[in-house]
Amino acid sequence: MTVLDKSKQAKPTATHANGACWLDAGGANTIQAHGGGVLLHDGFYYWYGENRQGPVQPGGERKRIDTVGVSCYRSRDLLSWEPLGLVLPVADDPAHDLHASKVIERPKVIFNSLTNKFVMWLHIDSADYAAARAGVAVADNPDGPFRYIRSIRPNGFMSRDQTLFQDDDGRAYHVCASDDNATTMISLLEDDYLDVSGKFTKIFPGRFMEAFALCKRKGRYWMLASGCSGWEPNEARSAVTEDLFGDWEERGNPCAGDGAELTFGAQSAFIIPPARRGSAGSGGAGGEGTYVAMFDVWRPADLRTSGYTWLPIDWSDGKMNIRHQDVWAGSTAAAPVR
Fold first, then answer.
1. CA angle, 66 as apex, 61 and 70 as ends, to 5°?
2. What local confidence, expressed as pLDDT, does residue 246 receive?
3. Contact (CB, 8 A) for 333 and 326
4. Whole-angstrom distance, CA of residue 175 vs CA of residue 283
5. Among residues 227, 240, 300, 232, which one has the least CA distance to residue 271?
6. Distances, alpha carbon 171 to alpha carbons 166, 320, 326, in Å
7. Contact partners, residue 329, CB within 8 Å, separation at least 6
8. What is the pTM of this model?
9. pLDDT for 333 beyond 60
10. What is the rounded CA–CA span in Å between residue 127 and residue 102?
11. What mean pLDDT is predicted for residues 191-219?
């Protein structure tokens, strides 16, 4: 667990330029939290993501960068982010799931109030993406360290791009691209969140979707996602349902304005819901404040320099609407109730 020296903390950042690399609260280092997600716990937001500061490997224009693990940052205002370091580092053993030569992507963390544990799921794969597995890790504190448990193929099926969703009843779900990305699989997790329960569904057959982000608003579940075009941006997708295991209705591209046809050059990563009054944590079901859509701006020639775009979601006409803004200035509407 990291203890921060408050006397050395920098003043809050004024704004972040959307699409650019963002600097942490110290102002000297870029935030390395790609493909990430945000957890609200006890008045702080924790941002987990891929740290891409590893060595660059020889190659063509798209040089491979070794993963060094999962980073974590902490904030009260979704703007000024204090670095907490690596909460899940890579392993030395070349055979281990977390070796730098493997794929370690899209970490998401939720808090289990029954076990008082913080549970991380992430995409684990071989360098050629043939393994297609989901990894699980657990910690006693939000800033780690996380203990890696194992990787699985949920329900016996392939799992690549993935996310977690925690409903307001405490149940949690794993959502992933399956069947060589042709379908989307939603799996109910066990009560301890460490394994799938066996209840699952496959949706959007033949639609080839990834980069899933879910939220719940006024009893309806919304999904933001991407097509499968590698590191290149494509048109965002959205869908809605009243039952995670029921029928989903696709609602098309929720983005509007210049660059909307390519999701403003970005790809979805997570939706931060507004804090629920009296709630210690937040995983996907929110209150009546601002929902924030997180996007990655991938730069495959050097993934370390990939940027971020965060945008508020407008629900004024009962649909998910996302318009581009040049800067991210934080969100008091999404701030935790204290």
1. 125
2. 98
3. no
4. 13
5. 240
6. 6, 24, 36
7. 14, 15, 16, 79
8. 0.92
9. no
10. 5
11. 98
Residue 184: which of 241, 256, 107, 262 has the closest Cα? Answer: 241
User: CB burial class (10 A; 0-12, 13-18, 19+) of residue 262?
Assistant: middle
Average pLDDT over residues 150-161: 98
Nearest to 225 by CA among 185, 278, 281: 185
Is the link from the previous residue into 55 a cis peptide, with omega within 30 of 0? no
Look up residue 138 and give its two tokens: 């657990």
Tokens standing for 294?
A: 């997180």
What is the spatial distance between Cα 313 and Cα 328, in angstroms, rounded to a whole number?
13
What pairs with residue 241 in β-bridges? 221
- Average per-residue pLDDT for the chain: 91
Query: How far is it, in rounded angstroms, from Cα 72 to Cα 82?
Result: 9
Reading the block at residue 319, the tokens are 């649909």
Q: How far apart are CA 27 and CA 21, in angstroms?
A: 12
Residue matched to tokens 């390395």: 32
